[in-house]
């Protein structure tokens, strides 16, 4: 077996075991074995890798295998020496907000995400170089908010020690406590929601603690539209008052009507109706916020957006077609609610659709909010054999990736290392990437002004 060259041996594990262990944070042993066999046919399998990692075998990689495996690691798109600004990514999910700011030459120096499957997808697509980037799971381990005996001063010291200095804080803090579906479900179960939800609702205050301790020049907070109206507006008022007390000006803070520019719909960029509230804040003492408004994001809206059909594949496996039993259930369910005068039912779309319903985290259950029409004839008897062959189908995970703006047809650089179920949850919980690409572009000049002012103060 050809040994690894000396330059690799001097800086990395000679056998390649460290590389394998790093990739196992993303992929399983079976995938890596099959991937290696693309280069060294029949030489690798899941058990070989498993025994190696457990120290029961010591096979080692040759140069070609090593380089082949390295291709699975995402490239560093921004490096410390070339970055224009630094940011942190809280409640990161699969990195939808990060992607937009990284494209503006921002360097991510800290990520926090607790879901182990989302972490796999995140690490498959974004470089997390340990030399300048820290990965954290539970943000409460940083803010120490889960320990009532910790003083504010101790918490701030820990935050300052654990989180690198940064210019922009990004946080898509959990929305379930404030979403319409989340509130309805918790009310039905007699459980708390909003800020009373101890596991998720109070996590905004963890964000506030970090802002207070680190004083970034700017922040971007994202949540569901219902955050504005939750608990008759009290929840949102507390958030806005807290941010003001921390010394931050929030864009369009007085706008609360139906034309509120803080509420941005992804349908202007991609064919999906997806409204989210976006809070952009700048530190008041830096004076870079004057004249900034999210109304200007309309300048970033493309002249033409794709129709749904431009994001779809013509080839797909049969498992994405609804089973006769599931299609009958959805069909009857919709008919029952239509007869009762309700709007509940499935969302049937086709290649000419300009805006689907909102892709949700529960899409894996039945796909009802976005079902692709395959020629179903509603005038025929439901049991018609020829018609049953035209049952609608779900989007594939790759198509979901395109609908959320993570990838484009012919440019499938976004890797999905998890099961379909987990992928559907991840895309359904994420953001429309082009929206935050536009937000980042809109903020870039102000961020750079703030960086220059901060650097001048540090020199003085």
UniProtKB/TrEMBL annotation:
<feature type="active site">
    <location>
        <position position="175"/>
    </location>
</feature>
<keyword id="KW-0680">Restriction system</keyword>
<dbReference type="InterPro" id="IPR018117">
    <property type="entry name" value="C5_DNA_meth_AS"/>
</dbReference>
<keyword id="KW-0808">Transferase</keyword>
<dbReference type="InterPro" id="IPR040743">
    <property type="entry name" value="DNA_meth_N"/>
</dbReference>
<protein>
    <recommendedName>
        <fullName>Cytosine-specific methyltransferase</fullName>
        <ecNumber>2.1.1.37</ecNumber>
    </recommendedName>
</protein>
<dbReference type="InterPro" id="IPR029063">
    <property type="entry name" value="SAM-dependent_MTases_sf"/>
</dbReference>
<dbReference type="Pfam" id="PF00145">
    <property type="entry name" value="DNA_methylase"/>
</dbReference>
<dbReference type="InterPro" id="IPR050390">
    <property type="entry name" value="C5-Methyltransferase"/>
</dbReference>
<dbReference type="GO" id="GO:0009307">
    <property type="term" value="P:DNA restriction-modification system"/>
</dbReference>
<dbReference type="InterPro" id="IPR001525">
    <property type="entry name" value="C5_MeTfrase"/>
</dbReference>
<keyword id="KW-0949">S-adenosyl-L-methionine</keyword>
<dbReference type="Pfam" id="PF18284">
    <property type="entry name" value="DNA_meth_N"/>
</dbReference>
<dbReference type="GO" id="GO:0032259">
    <property type="term" value="P:methylation"/>
</dbReference>
<keyword id="KW-0489">Methyltransferase</keyword>
<dbReference type="InterPro" id="IPR031303">
    <property type="entry name" value="C5_meth_CS"/>
</dbReference>
<feature type="domain" description="DNA methylase N-terminal">
    <location>
        <begin position="18"/>
        <end position="73"/>
    </location>
</feature>
<dbReference type="GO" id="GO:0003886">
    <property type="term" value="F:DNA (cytosine-5-)-methyltransferase activity"/>
</dbReference>
<dbReference type="GO" id="GO:0044027">
    <property type="term" value="P:negative regulation of gene expression via chromosomal CpG island methylation"/>
</dbReference>
<comment type="similarity">
    <text>Belongs to the class I-like SAM-binding methyltransferase superfamily. C5-methyltransferase family.</text>
</comment>
<dbReference type="GO" id="GO:0003677">
    <property type="term" value="F:DNA binding"/>
</dbReference>
